[in-house]
Amino acid sequence: MFSDSFFITIFGYTLRTLPTLLVCGIGIFILKTRILPGKAQTYGVSGLALLILVALGGVIFSMYVSYGGVDYASPAFHMVQMAYGAVSQVIHAVALILMVMAICGKESIAKSGETKNPYEQ
User: Fold this and answer.
1) What is the mean pLDDT of the chain?
2) Euclidean distance between CA atoms 36 and 39, whole angstroms
C-alpha cells in the first residue's frame, strides 16, 4: 500500500513544517511550566495548539493533493482548495488573536500595580 516515495514525500512535507512544530511545541511547554494568570496561559497554549493544527493540516492537505489522484482542472478540486485555504486562514487568524489576547492579559496583570508574590499559591 505505501511505497518508498510516499514516505519520502511525507517526510519532505513534515520537514518543511518542522520549525513551526518545534517552536509551537517548545512554546506550549514553556507556557505550561511558567506561573502565569490562568487566562493568559490558556489563551497562549490554545493559540500555539491551533498553529500546530494548521501546520499538520497543511501536511495532510499536501499529501491528499499528491496522492489523491486529483484532477487539478476540475471545479471540485478548486472548491476543495478554496475551502481548505479559507478554513486554514480562519484557524490561523484565531490562533494569532488568542496569542495577542494572552500577551494583553499578561500586560494588564503586570500594570495593575500589585506586588503580590507570583510563586505563592
Assistant:
1) 82
2) 8
